[in-house]
Specification:
Layout: H1 8-22, E1 23-24, E2 27-28, H2 35-48, E3 54-57, E4 63-67, E5 74-79, H3 93-107, E6 115-120, H4 134-140, H5 145-148, H6 159-164, E7 183-191, H7 196-200, E8 204-210, E9 212-221, E10 225-226, H8 238-256, E11 259-261, E12 265-268, E13 274-275, E14 278-287, H9 290-311, E15 314-323, E16 326-327, H10 330-343, E17 350-353, H11 358-364, E18 369-374, H12 390-412
Helix pairs in contact: 1-3, 1-12, 3-12, 4-11, 8-9, 10-12
Protein backbone atom coordinates (compact mmCIF):
# COMPACT_ATOMS: atom_id res chain seq x y z
CA UNK A 1 0.00 0.00 0.00
CA UNK A 2 1.46 3.39 -1.01
CA UNK A 3 1.99 6.25 1.43
CA UNK A 4 -0.85 8.14 -0.22
CA UNK A 5 -3.43 5.35 0.15
CA UNK A 6 -6.22 5.48 2.67
CA UNK A 7 -6.03 2.59 5.16
CA UNK A 8 -9.17 2.36 7.32
CA UNK A 9 -7.85 -0.77 9.01
CA UNK A 10 -5.06 1.39 10.43
CA UNK A 11 -7.71 3.52 12.14
CA UNK A 12 -9.08 0.42 13.86
CA UNK A 13 -5.55 -0.56 14.92
CA UNK A 14 -4.99 2.95 16.32
CA UNK A 15 -8.27 2.76 18.23
CA UNK A 16 -7.31 -0.59 19.73
CA UNK A 17 -3.88 0.73 20.68
CA UNK A 18 -5.36 3.78 22.39
CA UNK A 19 -7.88 1.63 24.26
CA UNK A 20 -5.15 -0.68 25.52
CA UNK A 21 -3.16 2.33 26.72
CA UNK A 22 -5.93 4.28 28.46
CA UNK A 23 -8.66 1.82 29.46
CA UNK A 24 -9.15 -0.72 32.22
CA UNK A 25 -11.69 -3.46 32.89
CA UNK A 26 -14.35 -0.77 33.47
CA UNK A 27 -13.81 1.02 30.16
CA UNK A 28 -12.03 4.13 28.87
CA UNK A 29 -10.60 6.46 31.54
CA UNK A 30 -9.47 9.46 29.46
CA UNK A 31 -11.22 12.10 31.57
CA UNK A 32 -9.95 15.55 30.56
CA UNK A 33 -7.44 17.28 32.81
CA UNK A 34 -6.15 13.97 34.24
CA UNK A 35 -2.89 12.05 33.76
CA UNK A 36 -4.59 9.36 31.64
CA UNK A 37 -5.90 12.01 29.23
CA UNK A 38 -2.39 13.50 29.05
CA UNK A 39 -1.00 10.04 28.30
CA UNK A 40 -3.46 9.71 25.41
CA UNK A 41 -2.40 13.05 24.01
CA UNK A 42 1.29 12.17 24.26
CA UNK A 43 0.55 9.00 22.29
CA UNK A 44 -1.41 11.01 19.73
CA UNK A 45 1.41 13.54 19.36
CA UNK A 46 3.75 10.70 18.46
CA UNK A 47 1.37 9.69 15.68
CA UNK A 48 1.27 13.27 14.38
CA UNK A 49 5.08 13.49 14.44
CA UNK A 50 5.13 11.06 11.50
CA UNK A 51 3.39 13.65 9.29
CA UNK A 52 4.51 16.95 7.68
CA UNK A 53 2.29 19.00 10.00
CA UNK A 54 2.83 21.65 12.64
CA UNK A 55 1.33 20.84 16.04
CA UNK A 56 0.30 23.35 18.68
CA UNK A 57 -1.85 23.53 21.78
CA UNK A 58 -3.97 26.68 21.86
CA UNK A 59 -4.93 28.86 24.82
CA UNK A 60 -7.92 26.64 25.67
CA UNK A 61 -6.00 23.36 25.56
CA UNK A 62 -7.16 22.25 22.10
CA UNK A 63 -4.52 20.38 20.10
CA UNK A 64 -4.18 21.41 16.45
CA UNK A 65 -2.29 19.71 13.60
CA UNK A 66 -1.95 21.85 10.46
CA UNK A 67 -1.07 20.71 6.95
CA UNK A 68 -0.44 23.84 4.83
CA UNK A 69 -2.21 23.98 1.49
CA UNK A 70 -2.17 26.15 -1.62
CA UNK A 71 -4.71 28.41 0.11
CA UNK A 72 -4.76 29.49 3.77
CA UNK A 73 -8.49 28.82 3.79
CA UNK A 74 -8.87 25.84 6.08
CA UNK A 75 -10.82 22.63 6.18
CA UNK A 76 -11.04 21.61 9.85
CA UNK A 77 -11.68 18.02 10.87
CA UNK A 78 -12.21 17.48 14.59
CA UNK A 79 -13.46 15.51 17.54
CA UNK A 80 -12.13 14.67 21.03
CA UNK A 81 -9.86 12.14 22.73
CA UNK A 82 -11.29 12.68 26.22
CA UNK A 83 -13.89 10.26 27.55
CA UNK A 84 -16.36 9.93 30.36
CA UNK A 85 -15.28 7.67 33.25
CA UNK A 86 -15.76 4.02 32.29
CA UNK A 87 -16.53 5.07 28.75
CA UNK A 88 -16.44 3.33 25.39
CA UNK A 89 -13.58 2.74 22.98
CA UNK A 90 -15.04 4.86 20.16
CA UNK A 91 -16.83 7.90 21.63
CA UNK A 92 -14.91 10.96 20.47
CA UNK A 93 -11.62 9.29 19.64
CA UNK A 94 -13.02 7.64 16.49
CA UNK A 95 -13.46 11.08 14.93
CA UNK A 96 -9.91 12.13 15.81
CA UNK A 97 -8.26 8.95 14.60
CA UNK A 98 -10.37 8.71 11.43
CA UNK A 99 -9.37 12.32 10.81
CA UNK A 100 -5.75 11.30 11.36
CA UNK A 101 -6.04 8.64 8.66
CA UNK A 102 -7.61 11.14 6.24
CA UNK A 103 -4.81 13.58 7.04
CA UNK A 104 -2.24 10.86 6.31
CA UNK A 105 -3.82 10.21 2.93
CA UNK A 106 -3.97 13.89 2.01
CA UNK A 107 -0.41 14.58 3.18
CA UNK A 108 0.85 11.62 1.15
CA UNK A 109 -0.43 13.22 -2.05
CA UNK A 110 1.42 16.51 -1.68
CA UNK A 111 0.16 19.99 -0.86
CA UNK A 112 -3.66 20.06 -0.78
CA UNK A 113 -5.64 22.85 -2.50
CA UNK A 114 -6.59 24.30 0.89
CA UNK A 115 -5.04 24.05 4.33
CA UNK A 116 -6.20 21.02 6.30
CA UNK A 117 -6.34 21.09 10.10
CA UNK A 118 -7.13 18.32 12.56
CA UNK A 119 -8.21 19.33 16.06
CA UNK A 120 -8.54 17.33 19.25
CA UNK A 121 -10.91 19.44 21.32
CA UNK A 122 -10.16 19.77 25.03
CA UNK A 123 -12.79 18.46 27.46
CA UNK A 124 -15.72 17.82 25.19
CA UNK A 125 -17.34 15.59 27.79
CA UNK A 126 -17.20 17.90 30.81
CA UNK A 127 -16.92 14.76 32.95
CA UNK A 128 -14.76 16.22 35.71
CA UNK A 129 -16.20 19.73 36.15
CA UNK A 130 -19.60 19.50 34.44
CA UNK A 131 -18.84 22.01 31.66
CA UNK A 132 -19.12 20.17 28.34
CA UNK A 133 -17.57 21.51 25.10
CA UNK A 134 -14.94 23.48 27.03
CA UNK A 135 -12.33 23.89 24.29
CA UNK A 136 -14.67 24.42 21.37
CA UNK A 137 -16.75 26.90 23.40
CA UNK A 138 -13.61 28.92 24.05
CA UNK A 139 -12.81 28.99 20.33
CA UNK A 140 -16.39 30.06 19.62
CA UNK A 141 -16.20 32.80 22.28
CA UNK A 142 -19.00 31.23 24.36
CA UNK A 143 -17.18 29.90 27.42
CA UNK A 144 -18.62 32.25 30.10
CA UNK A 145 -15.42 32.67 32.08
CA UNK A 146 -17.10 34.04 35.20
CA UNK A 147 -19.26 30.95 35.60
CA UNK A 148 -16.59 28.44 34.58
CA UNK A 149 -14.07 29.91 37.03
CA UNK A 150 -16.32 28.89 39.93
CA UNK A 151 -16.60 25.21 38.95
CA UNK A 152 -15.12 22.50 41.17
CA UNK A 153 -14.88 18.73 40.87
CA UNK A 154 -16.14 16.18 43.40
CA UNK A 155 -12.91 16.51 45.40
CA UNK A 156 -13.21 20.28 45.60
CA UNK A 157 -10.46 21.04 43.08
CA UNK A 158 -11.07 24.28 41.17
CA UNK A 159 -11.29 24.20 37.38
CA UNK A 160 -8.86 27.14 36.91
CA UNK A 161 -6.23 25.27 38.93
CA UNK A 162 -6.80 21.96 37.15
CA UNK A 163 -6.49 23.39 33.63
CA UNK A 164 -3.41 25.42 34.62
CA UNK A 165 -1.59 22.15 35.30
CA UNK A 166 -2.07 21.37 31.58
CA UNK A 167 -0.90 24.73 30.25
CA UNK A 168 -4.21 26.59 30.15
CA UNK A 169 -4.80 30.01 31.72
CA UNK A 170 -8.55 30.29 32.00
CA UNK A 171 -8.49 34.09 31.74
CA UNK A 172 -6.91 33.93 28.26
CA UNK A 173 -8.69 30.78 27.01
CA UNK A 174 -10.96 32.63 24.58
CA UNK A 175 -7.91 33.93 22.71
CA UNK A 176 -8.12 30.51 21.05
CA UNK A 177 -10.74 32.11 18.79
CA UNK A 178 -7.83 32.99 16.49
CA UNK A 179 -7.73 29.36 15.40
CA UNK A 180 -10.80 29.73 13.19
CA UNK A 181 -9.82 32.98 11.49
CA UNK A 182 -9.35 31.17 8.15
CA UNK A 183 -11.86 28.36 8.74
CA UNK A 184 -13.86 27.49 5.64
CA UNK A 185 -15.62 24.35 6.88
CA UNK A 186 -15.73 21.98 9.84
CA UNK A 187 -16.32 18.21 9.64
CA UNK A 188 -16.87 15.86 12.55
CA UNK A 189 -17.45 12.13 12.57
CA UNK A 190 -18.88 10.36 15.60
CA UNK A 191 -20.60 7.20 16.70
CA UNK A 192 -24.35 7.75 16.72
CA UNK A 193 -24.83 7.00 20.45
CA UNK A 194 -28.35 5.87 19.70
CA UNK A 195 -30.27 3.05 17.95
CA UNK A 196 -31.69 4.78 14.86
CA UNK A 197 -29.19 3.65 12.22
CA UNK A 198 -29.15 0.10 13.54
CA UNK A 199 -32.96 0.00 13.49
CA UNK A 200 -32.87 1.07 9.83
CA UNK A 201 -30.16 -1.44 8.93
CA UNK A 202 -27.83 1.37 7.80
CA UNK A 203 -24.18 1.90 8.74
CA UNK A 204 -23.89 5.67 8.18
CA UNK A 205 -25.95 8.82 8.45
CA UNK A 206 -25.61 12.50 7.49
CA UNK A 207 -26.40 14.74 10.45
CA UNK A 208 -28.67 17.70 9.71
CA UNK A 209 -28.08 19.42 13.07
CA UNK A 210 -28.11 19.02 16.83
CA UNK A 211 -31.06 19.12 19.17
CA UNK A 212 -31.63 22.18 21.28
CA UNK A 213 -31.24 21.46 24.98
CA UNK A 214 -33.16 22.81 27.97
CA UNK A 215 -31.80 21.55 31.30
CA UNK A 216 -33.31 22.60 34.61
CA UNK A 217 -33.46 21.52 38.24
CA UNK A 218 -36.87 21.36 39.88
CA UNK A 219 -37.33 21.23 43.63
CA UNK A 220 -40.61 20.03 45.07
CA UNK A 221 -40.94 21.09 48.75
CA UNK A 222 -43.46 19.44 51.04
CA UNK A 223 -43.17 18.24 54.63
CA UNK A 224 -40.94 15.51 56.01
CA UNK A 225 -42.86 13.07 58.23
CA UNK A 226 -42.60 9.65 59.81
CA UNK A 227 -43.34 6.82 57.36
CA UNK A 228 -45.49 5.01 59.91
CA UNK A 229 -47.08 7.77 61.91
CA UNK A 230 -48.44 10.01 59.18
CA UNK A 231 -51.73 9.04 57.42
CA UNK A 232 -51.60 8.97 53.63
CA UNK A 233 -54.32 11.57 53.11
CA UNK A 234 -52.47 14.15 55.25
CA UNK A 235 -49.06 13.81 53.66
CA UNK A 236 -47.28 16.47 51.60
CA UNK A 237 -44.92 14.03 49.88
CA UNK A 238 -42.42 15.83 47.68
CA UNK A 239 -41.27 12.61 46.04
CA UNK A 240 -44.77 11.64 44.92
CA UNK A 241 -45.13 15.03 43.25
CA UNK A 242 -41.78 14.52 41.50
CA UNK A 243 -42.77 11.01 40.43
CA UNK A 244 -46.03 12.24 38.91
CA UNK A 245 -44.10 15.01 37.15
CA UNK A 246 -41.64 12.51 35.67
CA UNK A 247 -44.50 10.59 34.11
CA UNK A 248 -45.83 13.83 32.64
CA UNK A 249 -42.41 14.57 31.13
CA UNK A 250 -42.56 11.30 29.21
CA UNK A 251 -45.96 12.16 27.75
CA UNK A 252 -44.94 15.73 26.90
CA UNK A 253 -41.87 14.50 25.01
CA UNK A 254 -43.91 11.92 23.08
CA UNK A 255 -46.59 14.49 22.26
CA UNK A 256 -44.10 16.96 20.76
CA UNK A 257 -41.78 14.45 19.09
CA UNK A 258 -38.81 15.31 21.31
CA UNK A 259 -37.07 13.63 24.23
CA UNK A 260 -37.32 14.30 27.95
CA UNK A 261 -35.31 12.84 30.81
CA UNK A 262 -35.25 13.07 34.59
CA UNK A 263 -31.75 11.75 35.12
CA UNK A 264 -31.15 12.63 38.75
CA UNK A 265 -33.54 12.47 41.71
CA UNK A 266 -32.57 13.31 45.30
CA UNK A 267 -34.84 13.06 48.32
CA UNK A 268 -34.45 14.86 51.65
CA UNK A 269 -34.31 13.24 54.13
CA UNK A 270 -32.92 10.30 52.20
CA UNK A 271 -33.91 7.53 54.63
CA UNK A 272 -36.34 4.59 54.32
CA UNK A 273 -38.54 5.63 57.26
CA UNK A 274 -39.38 9.20 56.25
CA UNK A 275 -41.75 10.85 53.82
CA UNK A 276 -39.68 13.07 51.55
CA UNK A 277 -39.93 16.69 52.64
CA UNK A 278 -38.01 17.79 49.56
CA UNK A 279 -37.27 16.20 46.21
CA UNK A 280 -34.90 17.74 43.68
CA UNK A 281 -34.79 16.32 40.16
CA UNK A 282 -33.21 17.33 36.89
CA UNK A 283 -35.17 17.87 33.71
CA UNK A 284 -33.45 17.53 30.32
CA UNK A 285 -35.58 18.28 27.25
CA UNK A 286 -34.36 18.23 23.65
CA UNK A 287 -35.81 18.90 20.20
CA UNK A 288 -34.48 19.89 16.79
CA UNK A 289 -37.21 22.55 16.43
CA UNK A 290 -36.91 25.61 18.69
CA UNK A 291 -40.67 26.30 18.81
CA UNK A 292 -41.49 22.74 19.83
CA UNK A 293 -38.70 22.73 22.39
CA UNK A 294 -40.13 25.84 24.02
CA UNK A 295 -43.60 24.29 23.96
CA UNK A 296 -42.21 21.23 25.76
CA UNK A 297 -40.72 23.41 28.49
CA UNK A 298 -43.92 25.44 28.81
CA UNK A 299 -45.96 22.25 29.15
CA UNK A 300 -43.56 20.90 31.75
CA UNK A 301 -43.76 24.12 33.75
CA UNK A 302 -47.55 24.03 33.70
CA UNK A 303 -47.57 20.36 34.69
CA UNK A 304 -45.22 20.96 37.63
CA UNK A 305 -47.40 23.79 38.95
CA UNK A 306 -50.59 21.75 38.59
CA UNK A 307 -49.12 18.65 40.25
CA UNK A 308 -47.59 20.66 43.09
CA UNK A 309 -50.99 22.16 43.82
CA UNK A 310 -52.70 18.79 43.77
CA UNK A 311 -50.11 17.26 46.11
CA UNK A 312 -49.99 20.19 48.51
CA UNK A 313 -46.34 21.02 47.86
CA UNK A 314 -44.39 23.91 46.36
CA UNK A 315 -42.18 23.77 43.27
CA UNK A 316 -39.28 25.96 42.13
CA UNK A 317 -37.20 25.89 38.93
CA UNK A 318 -33.51 26.66 38.41
CA UNK A 319 -31.99 26.78 34.92
CA UNK A 320 -28.81 24.72 34.54
CA UNK A 321 -28.07 24.86 30.81
CA UNK A 322 -29.70 26.06 27.59
CA UNK A 323 -28.59 25.55 24.00
CA UNK A 324 -30.88 26.35 21.06
CA UNK A 325 -31.19 23.87 18.19
CA UNK A 326 -28.40 24.19 15.66
CA UNK A 327 -28.91 23.20 12.03
CA UNK A 328 -25.84 22.39 9.95
CA UNK A 329 -24.84 23.86 6.60
CA UNK A 330 -27.28 22.55 3.95
CA UNK A 331 -24.67 22.21 1.18
CA UNK A 332 -22.31 20.33 3.47
CA UNK A 333 -25.17 18.04 4.50
CA UNK A 334 -25.74 17.35 0.79
CA UNK A 335 -22.03 16.61 0.29
CA UNK A 336 -22.00 14.35 3.33
CA UNK A 337 -25.03 12.46 2.04
CA UNK A 338 -23.34 12.00 -1.35
CA UNK A 339 -20.11 10.78 0.23
CA UNK A 340 -22.02 8.19 2.25
CA UNK A 341 -23.94 7.02 -0.81
CA UNK A 342 -20.70 6.61 -2.76
CA UNK A 343 -19.20 4.21 -0.21
CA UNK A 344 -22.44 2.46 0.78
CA UNK A 345 -24.14 1.50 -2.47
CA UNK A 346 -26.37 4.55 -2.59
CA UNK A 347 -27.85 4.19 0.91
CA UNK A 348 -27.77 7.03 3.44
CA UNK A 349 -30.03 8.59 6.06
CA UNK A 350 -30.38 12.21 7.13
CA UNK A 351 -30.92 12.59 10.86
CA UNK A 352 -30.59 14.98 13.79
CA UNK A 353 -28.21 14.43 16.69
CA UNK A 354 -29.69 14.20 20.16
CA UNK A 355 -26.35 14.44 22.00
CA UNK A 356 -24.38 17.67 21.84
CA UNK A 357 -21.02 17.84 20.07
CA UNK A 358 -18.21 20.32 19.43
CA UNK A 359 -19.73 20.78 15.98
CA UNK A 360 -22.47 22.85 17.65
CA UNK A 361 -19.92 25.42 18.77
CA UNK A 362 -18.31 25.61 15.34
CA UNK A 363 -21.71 26.19 13.76
CA UNK A 364 -22.50 28.88 16.34
CA UNK A 365 -19.18 30.53 15.49
CA UNK A 366 -20.30 30.83 11.87
CA UNK A 367 -18.15 28.04 10.42
CA UNK A 368 -20.03 25.91 7.83
CA UNK A 369 -20.40 22.60 9.62
CA UNK A 370 -21.62 19.03 9.16
CA UNK A 371 -21.36 15.75 11.04
CA UNK A 372 -21.27 12.14 9.88
CA UNK A 373 -22.64 9.36 12.11
CA UNK A 374 -21.67 5.70 12.16
CA UNK A 375 -23.98 3.06 13.60
CA UNK A 376 -23.75 2.19 17.31
CA UNK A 377 -24.56 -1.42 18.18
CA UNK A 378 -27.59 -1.54 20.48
CA UNK A 379 -27.38 2.25 20.64
CA UNK A 380 -24.92 2.05 23.53
CA UNK A 381 -22.47 4.82 24.42
CA UNK A 382 -20.93 6.28 27.58
CA UNK A 383 -20.60 2.61 28.44
CA UNK A 384 -17.73 0.12 28.25
CA UNK A 385 -19.93 -2.09 26.02
CA UNK A 386 -20.12 0.61 23.33
CA UNK A 387 -19.29 -0.96 19.97
CA UNK A 388 -19.52 -0.61 16.19
CA UNK A 389 -18.88 -3.30 13.58
CA UNK A 390 -15.36 -3.17 12.13
CA UNK A 391 -16.72 -3.02 8.58
CA UNK A 392 -18.84 -0.03 9.53
CA UNK A 393 -15.84 1.76 11.03
CA UNK A 394 -13.96 1.16 7.79
CA UNK A 395 -16.88 2.52 5.78
CA UNK A 396 -17.03 5.60 8.01
CA UNK A 397 -13.35 6.37 7.40
CA UNK A 398 -13.88 6.05 3.67
CA UNK A 399 -16.94 8.29 3.81
CA UNK A 400 -15.08 10.93 5.82
CA UNK A 401 -12.26 10.82 3.29
CA UNK A 402 -14.68 11.29 0.36
CA UNK A 403 -16.38 14.12 2.23
CA UNK A 404 -13.04 15.83 2.91
CA UNK A 405 -12.19 15.75 -0.81
CA UNK A 406 -15.58 17.16 -1.76
CA UNK A 407 -15.32 19.96 0.78
CA UNK A 408 -11.76 20.84 -0.22
CA UNK A 409 -12.92 21.16 -3.84
CA UNK A 410 -15.82 23.34 -2.71
CA UNK A 411 -13.53 25.60 -0.66
CA UNK A 412 -11.02 25.89 -3.49
CA UNK A 413 -13.55 27.28 -5.98
Amino acid sequence: MSASSLNPQRTIADLRELAALTSDERGAQRVAWTPTWAKARDWYRRKLAELPVTVEQDEAGNLWATLPGASPRALIIGSHLDSVPNGGWLDGCLGVLAGLEVLRRIAGQGAPPVTVRLVDWADEEGARFGRSLFGSSAVAGRLNLEWVSRLTDTDGARLPDAVKAYGVDLMTAEQAHRQIADAGAYLEMHVEQGPVLESLGLPLGAVIGCYGIERHQLTFSGMAAHAGGFPMHLRRDAFLAAARFALEVREIAKRHGGVGTNGRVRNTPDIPTAVAGECALTLDMRHIDATRLQAMVDDACAASTRIAGEEGVDVTWRTIYQSPPQLFHPHLVDLCDKAICEVNAGASHRMPSGPGHDAIEMAWAGVPTVMLFVQSLRGLSHNKDEDTRAEHIELSVRALDRLADKVMAWLAT
